[in-house]
Design a protein that fits this description.
The structure is a single chain. It is built from four helices and two strands, in the order E-E-H-H-H-H. It is mostly helical and 127 residues long. Strands 1-2 form a two-stranded antiparallel ribbon. Strand 1 and strand 2 form a beta hairpin. Helix 1 packs antiparallel against helix 3 and helix 1 runs parallel beside helix 4.
Length: 127
């Protein structure tokens, strides 16, 4: 039976049918994984934004040869990597959302605290 309201307890099924917690040790380990996964999501978001900002800087010297190639709309490696980062980060975000949909209060708090901690570590720098 799936819970439809927030509940508190050590028995959680998270994301897949075989990830079930029955003991306090497995529950605490699951919360730790949720916390670290959330912080990693913020790290990946920071890397994506940093790479996008560094890839969008124009070259210091504009040469006619490079400007002609740019008009041909060839696949640029920077755009490809930025798109890959976006796809991975979107998948991570959806997995976090699905984990929260388990409706367990501990999982919810672990993910929100992990996102906050990751934001503090990786995205509040003065660059």
């Amino acid at each position: 039976m799936m819970h439809m309201t927030i509940y508190w307890g050590k028995k959680v099924t998270l994301l897949v049918h075989w990830w079930k917690t029955r003991t306090w040790v497995s529950y605490i380990l699951t919360l730790l994984v949720c916390f670290l996964f959330s912080a990693f999501y913020q790290y990946m978001e920071d890397r994506r934004l940093h790479f996008k900002a560094s890839a969008s800087n124009p070259p210091p010297i504009a040469t006619p040869l490079l400007s002609k190639l740019g008009r041909a709309r060839r696949v640029s490696p920077a755009r490809l990597v930025t798109s890959l980062f976006f796809g991975v980060n979107s998948a991570l975000g959806y997995l976090l959302m699905l984990a929260i949909m388990s409706c367990n209060g501990g999982v919810f708090l672990a993910i929100v605290l992990g996102l906050s901690f990751g934001y503090y570590l990786f995205r509040t720098r003065d660059d």
